[in-house]
């Protein structure tokens, strides 16, 4: 095999890998890898605050409730829960 054949084989390998990575990225962005798709997500982390190197405060939103959790190596504690506020509208700059 000469240099041109090696270059052609390398290009084919790179193109195939790029197509696989692109298909995986598109499937993930479109929610195809999650059972039920993105519409069925009921829980998300709204905000986190690092207290120190071992502890963290987290606000978790589940349906129409928000729960404040203290996460640490000694255990996890529910600090409080409340009705969730409406998310502020996302501002777009033109």
Can you summarize this structure?
With 94 residues, the protein is an alpha+beta fold. It has one helix at 3-29; strands at residues 43-50, 56-62, 65-72, 75-83. It is found in: Bacterial flagellum basal body; Cell membrane.
Task: Describe the protein.
The chain has one helix and four strands, in the order αββββ. A four-stranded antiparallel sheet has the order 1-2-3-4, with no helix packed on it. A hairpin with a 2-residue loop joins β2 (56-62) and β3 (65-72). It has one helix at residues 3-29; strands at residues 43-50, 56-62, 65-72, 75-83. Helix content is 29%, strand content 34%. The model has no long low-confidence stretch (mean pLDDT 85). By secondary structure, the chain is α+β, with helices and mostly antiparallel strands. The protein has two domains: 1-39; 42-87. Keywords: Bacterial flagellum, Cell membrane, Membrane, Transmembrane, Transmembrane helix. Its main location: other. This is Flagellar protein. It is found in: Bacterial flagellum basal body; Cell membrane. It holds the Pfam family FliO.
Shape: elongated
Assembly type of the shown chains?
Answer: single chain
Kindly report the spatial arrangement of strands forming the biggest sheet.
Answer: 1-2-3-4
Gyration radius over CA? 23 Å
State the total count of DSSP E strands. 4
Query: What is the typical, i.e. mean, pLDDT?
Result: 85
The major beta sheet can be summarized as: 4 strands, antiparallel
| Unreliable runs | none
Strand content: 25-35%
Q: What structural class is derived from the secondary structure elements?
A: alpha+beta
Q: Count the helices. How many?
A: 1
* Total of domains: 2
Keywords: Bacterial flagellum, Cell membrane, Membrane, Transmembrane, Transmembrane helix
Protein name: Flagellar protein
Family: Belongs to the FliO/MopB family.
Subcellular location: Bacterial flagellum basal body; Cell membrane
